[in-house]
Fold each of these.
Amino acid sequence: MLLDFTTLPARDRYKLLVSTVVPRPIALVTSHDDAGRVNAAPFSFFNAMGADPPLIALGVGDRRGEPKDTADNIRNHQRFVINLVSEAIAEPMNVTAIDFPADVDELAEAGLTPVPMADGWPPRIAESPVAMQCVEASTTHIGRNRVILGEVVAMHVDDALIDMDKLHIRTDALHLVGRMHGAGHYVRTSDLFELPRIRVEDWRLSR
């Protein structure tokens, strides 16, 4: 079945895209406005895009032709924090996705704990196993999409989840969740399997 995206309505393109690019990690982004009010919102158009410098990409769609609070705050202040979402905070994360008015504190509504940070940064979330402080590197506005590239300048990791000697993260203990198709469908990341990389020499010997 060939599906021509140039002729499909936007809603159908969205449905097909989010049903096939799965699972998607979730960034629960904290940012702040000019008055210092903190905004928290989850986004699953999110991933790591590079290591030198360390880059993440965040896709934030416009709302009714205007930038969402997250995109507006990042544009105005260039600093934001990505809090990764574990099973333990999946339901609170879902609360922050509610379309609250701008003056509502999403973290308070969700029962999540803000951890203040110095030098004008928005807070990280105490219950998140990993939080990344990011500085806006660039934003590209295409149609109703704003693709934000952020450089990670610091990372906060739960002490129980990292071996500081080797800088190994206990990935299996993060218990992160990912976004699947449609509204309300998620996946756990606990079903792991290992598939070692193959050296070209070993591949040739095996043939």
Amino acid sequence: MPDNLASLLILLSILVILSIVYSYVRWKSRTRCAEKLAALLATWGKPTDGERDFALLRSLWGMYTQSFHGKHLDDQTWEDLNLDLIFENIDRTHCLPGQIVLYHWLRTPETRRAVLSERDRMVALFQKNVALRQSVQLELSRLGRTRFPSGILELLWGELPRPHRFRLLYSLLAILVMVCLGTAALLVACGWPWGRFAMLSLGILWPLNMFIHYRTRNIISERILSIRYLGKMVAAARKIGCTQLAGLEDKLQSLARCSTAAKKIPLVTALLVPERAGAVELSEVLQEYVTILFLVEVRSYYKVIEEIRKCGGMLREIFQTFGELDALQAIASFREGLPSYAIPEFQAEGRVLNIREAVHPLLASAVANSISLADRGCLITGSNMSGKSTFLRTLGVNVVLAQSVLTCPAA
């Protein structure tokens, strides 16, 4: 009886400890979530700080637009209108796809009225529905950006590595290690002397697997973080796709469908561990030995490349959907930060430009100007430094913003 009582007390103690740990983890998670939501609310309607590498952004945009056809703003027009600074002001995105899609929208003016109307509807939705906006922002901020953005786009739009000819051999070597370990343990437990030969076989496999592991790591080390980002992206898509957010049904269905098709990718990418820097704990050392011995990382890498090849279309759709959601909430934040703005109206026919009290969004105290043209041009004259170039840039920027983010700093 005392023994049973002691066992019961030990069991109860373990359950109490586990419940305390679980409660602490939940509390910590809720606290972090509340802090993040407070930060999102505090920065809403304000430009975000931080340097932007526009040379890299143009390079990423070039990779992204391989699958798009149509007219884009050329580099000279982009520079003449100072659109790098305009983009910097509008860019309140939280993840890599959002930044790429927003940049793409600004460089690719849209002329289809149905697309523009839907874009405006969703921007207004993010403006009005705070709960919906913060639910999306929270997941997008968890996804975040990556130190190797070009690696993501290469995996999605570039040429993937070909299947390795020794891939099946690597799986066979892992099975042999398992067989040797099991056989050795069984023979030693039974007291038979043949266990040492099984251990000797393991001693031969160890250096071979170590050579394969480190040789492959040298090749794939730069891709590991990019592949893990894809895994995070699919996992986030699955989480958002399961939520009920009125007004975003089409986007959520797309995320749910694509993440289900690519559900193996997060599981496999979890086995790819980035190279560690600094002090290494004992558990990490043991994990490294197991990874080498069973070629876990090598086999996972070739497996995930195979999955990316099979689900490439779905992954690109997830990237595009996340990008659109992030770009839309960024435009909503841009609108909220403006003193006033106009939503443009488009005519089906004719060449018409009619702007009242337009200002340049980068000028703090700009003088508003108006112009009305219909199927003709006009000649603008004036003395030096009278504002002719600023007025022309104001018109150009307003036209670009009208056909991309549907938000014009005008009456």
